[in-house]
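Field reference: "sequence" (input) and "structure" (output). Example, Cytochrome P450 monooxygenase aclL:
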Amino acid sequence: MEAQKEEEVLQKRTEKALRQKRVEEQKQLVLERKRQREEKKERKRREKETKQLEREANRQLRTEMEKQNQRSIQPKHQARQNGSDGLEENGGIQDEIIVVLPTVTQPPVLFKPPNKALSDWVFHLAKLHEKYGPAVRFTPKDVSFITAEASKKIYGHKAAGNKSFEKDFRMYRQNRPCSSIVRSDQEDHRRMRRLLAHAFSSKALRGQGDVVDHYVELFMKGLTERAQRGEEIDIVAWYNFASFDLIGHLALGQPFGCLENGKYHPWVSRVFKGLKVLSYTQIYVRLGLQNWISLLSPPSLRKSYEEHMQFAEHAALARIESKDTESQDFMSYVLRHNDEKGMSQLEIIENSGVMIIAGSETTATLLSGTTYFLLKNPDKLKKLTNEIRSAFTSEEEITVTQVDQLKYMLAVFNEGFRMYPPVAVGLSRLSPAGGEFIDGYWIPENTAVSMPHWPAYYSELNFRDPKKFVPERWLDDPRYASDNRAILSPFSLGPRDCIGKNLAYTEMRLLLARMLWKFDLEAVPTEKDWYDQKIFFLWEKGGLPIKLKEVVREKV
């Protein structure tokens, strides 16, 4: 009897517990539905708010357009006859600069969806320069130049007493815990660059040679295995695998494993998506909506960017905590030389995230574009292949020192940079207090000025046959003697030029030389031309399928 009673008591307790559980589940369900309703309500509120902001921005822009279009821009000779200096009465930009205000409204909202407008902007700007000349004012506070003189003035080293053009920090995300080498004022930039210079010095690069060679070998191993199986290879993906694995090792002491696994690491995929946020940033700040960027930019892109920085933070912290100062990677040099004038832990983490992007995506982009143009121009591919194969009798001979001697290869890369610059847009700087002349144009203070690479490199003002892939133009071919080769600055100029350019050249030369020495390349026909791409700050590259045929050589 007692056992039966205990069983009944237990059963009642169980039933009570189940009832309580169901009640709790019902409460949770009610709360979840309430949360969903609130989220939906909040989403609608934000959408309404966004539309109101867009309408207000459009209204302001239309008003500004009407004001500007009502102004008459005097020809220079007429201005002189009237006794003026050729400047607008309000102290504005010199009158020869063409004002094209409607173009600023095109990227964000008025005429095209944001995605379409953002990805077309560089090409549209090139058309404006083609129509109006070397200087175009495309918003009331933005001027684009496509001359070497302007580029040197804006970005180059300044002689004593000359004014410097500070970075336009509106163009960079500001909700970061600290600054980085690309988002810092002059003083902080000098401090960070001094420390990072140890990691990118010629001595450091020689010490990192074995690391570079290791990933070049993995790259070649992956290509060889797939070539032997007769598989098509997406060479864009494999260039990305190599560049991300190498920079992962050098920046954080750990590769992504892309080359060994033959696929993208999730982190790498997030980098590609997250970079689009930079394009939205550049547009919305020009509309005065910088405080609303997080709301206006696509949530998936914001999430990808933040996840990239979180990955970088975790990896950098692990590397810092290891306290290893002997490995041949960037962090060893940073930790070894870090002193009271060095970088804080937060700054090291922030710069690690920057180096992952700057040291990978841009290198792979240039290799991809160069390979595409070589495949489209078989005579150039044959000429480069012959140079490489005549210079080396074995793969082991292809070293950093030796590939530096290949003149036609350097010309090929220069032409690749010209036709497919990894950073196609212009990185804006602000004109100094009191204003300044740029290539003969007076620019008022606090005006954003830039030299956009793609429009400059495709302009007939700078190059003959700008749409033709002609490496010979960089080898003193008399047909191209009039080319303004000084305009080419893919790594920028001056004190803020790319600190990793020597590493980039080393990686690019070794990968391309090794591949062309061992394989014959064949393009795989596709429905869409690979070069038909969008630009969201960087190129949105698709896959470039090729076939590789291993060269059969007689054994000596």
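The first helix runs from residue 2 to 70.
Confidence is low (pLDDT under 50) at residues 68-96, 98-113.
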